[in-house]
Design goal:
With 187 residues, this protein is an alpha/beta fold. Helix content is 36%, strand content 20%. It contains 2 helices and 7 strands, in the order αβββββββα. It has a 4-stranded mixed sheet, with no helix packed on it. Strands 1-3-5 form a 3-stranded mixed sheet, with no helix packed on it. It starts with a helix and ends with a helix. The chain binds copper (II) ion.
Length: 187
């Protein structure tokens, strides 16, 4: 009677142990890999500025070599487009991408206003840099490595009053996150 009882207890304990191992195995092989995937994908997306909210400027391949016939001074070669016009509250974040193998910078001609830096993100192919202009005006910039590279950003004041432009910018920022998700998926 007592030996039969301890056999039953032993079987129950064995079932509990098998169940616990099975649960651990399920966790390691089914749940844990998903957590790994989640953490790696959160580091993956680079900053991508949606075209609807940004003005995009590309530094094309070959920009590090002077244009043919170059005889010094600044040219329209190196930033594409070299001159852009943006509107505050609409597309006043300018987003530069270096498609060239040579290092470049986006350096404001107004000292200290903005500068991607001589060791900054635009020194790598595929690197990006962005700056948001908040005051109307015309701003010129250059590449600190290549004398022929000169760009211009003309910033226009947005339309509407202060309070309505606030609501416009908050709806605009939700549009930013929506389309950056789209961009990350298509990349
Ligand atoms: Cu350059």
């Amino acid at each position: 009677m007592s030996s039969h009882g301890s056999t039953v207890v032993g079987v129950v304990v064995a079932i509990l142990i098998v169940g616990a191992i099975g649960t651990l195995g399920y966790y390691q092989f089914e749940i844990a890999p998903n957590q790994t995937t989640t953490s790696s994908s959160s580091t993956a997306p680079a900053v991508n500025c949606p075209s609807a909210q940004c003005a995009n400027v590309t530094i094309p391949a070959g920009a590090g070599t002077p244009p043919s016939g170059y005889s010094g001074g600044k040219t329209t070669f190196g930033y594409s487009p070299d001159a852009i016009t943006v509107v505050i509250g609409k597309n006043n974040t300018v987003f530069w991408t270096n498609d060239d193998s040579a290092p470049h910078t986006v350096t404001s001609d107004t000292a200290g206003m903005f500068d991607s830096g001589s060791t900054g993100p635009l020194t790598s192919q595929g690197g990006t840099y962005q700056y948001t202009f908040t005051t109307a005006g015309t701003y010129t910039y250059h590449c600190s490595f290549h004398a022929w590279m000169q760009g211009t950003v003309k910033v226009l004041a947005g339309t509407g009053t202060g309070s309505s432009s606030n609501s416009a910018s908050s709806s605009a920022s939700s549009a930013v996150s929506t389309s950056s998700t789209t961009t990350a998926t298509s990349t």
